[in-house]
Amino acid sequence: MDFLTKVLRPLKRLVKAVARLSQPPMAMLNRDIPAKHVPMTQLLIGVNIALFIVQILVFNFTECFALNSSVWYTYITSCFLHGSVSHLLGNMLFLSFIFPPIEKKYGSIFILLAYIVTGIFGCALFALFLPNAHAIGASGSIFGMMMIWILHNIMEKRPLLILPALFYFMLEGMRSGVSLIAPDGIAHLGHYGAALGAFFLLPLMLAKRK
C-alpha cells in the first residue's frame, strides 16, 4: 500500500497543479510558502499540461513555437512544449521531484527565473551547434534545475547525495558530443547547456542563503 501511495503521489500533484491554475499567479507568488506548498512548481506543471493540450488542438502551434535558432522567443516557448504524452509525463514527474525542495528553500520567483534562464541556455547551446535543427521540451530546464539541486546539496554539505547525479551529468556530456555525429532525436546539448546555465544563478542562491 505504501508503494502504491508513493507511485500515485506525483499524479496527484499533476491534478492539483491543474486545479490551481484558477488562482492569480501574482497572488501565489506574494504569499508565504507553507512547508508542503510549492505554487510555482504546480503552476509550471499546469502550464506545461495546458500547452500540450493546445498543441493537440491547434494546428501548426508546435511548429510556430518550437525552438528556431533565428526566432528569439522560441528560446523560451520551446521549453513549455512536448512531443508526446510520454515525453510530457516523464518531464513533469521529474519536475515534481526536483523542483519542490528548491522552491521551498529559494522561493517561487527563483524557480520561475531558474526554469527560464536555464532553458534559454540549453536552447542557446543546442542552436549554436545545430542551428538548423528544432527542439521542444522542458527537459533542458529540468536538467538546469538538477544542477541547481546539486549545488544546493553541496552547500548543505550532503556530497554523497549528489554522486549519482554527477555521474549522470558525465554521461550526458559524452552523449552531447556523440549526438553531434550521430543524432538520436534527443537534445543532449540542450540538457548540458541548461546545466551550465545553472552556474549563473549561483550568486543569487548564495544571496538568498544569507
Name the overall outline.
globular
Given as residue ranges, the uncertain stretches (5+ residues, pLDDT < 50) are 25-35
The number of helical elements comes to 11
State the CATH topology: Rhomboid-like fold
Tell me the series of helices and strands, N- to C-terminal.
HHHHHHHHHHH
Helix content: over 70%
Describe the structure.
The protein starts with a helix and ends with a helix. The protein has 11 helices and no strands. With 210 residues, the protein is mostly helical. About 5% of the residues have low confidence. The protein has one domain: Rhomboid-like fold, CATH 1.20.1540.
Topology:
Blueprint: H1 2-19, H2 25-30, H3 39-57, H4 61-65, H5 74-77, H6 85-106, H7 108-129, H8 139-155, H9 159-181, H10 188-197, H11 202-209
Helix pairs in contact: 1-3, 1-6, 3-6, 3-7, 6-7, 6-8, 7-8, 7-10, 8-9, 8-10, 9-10
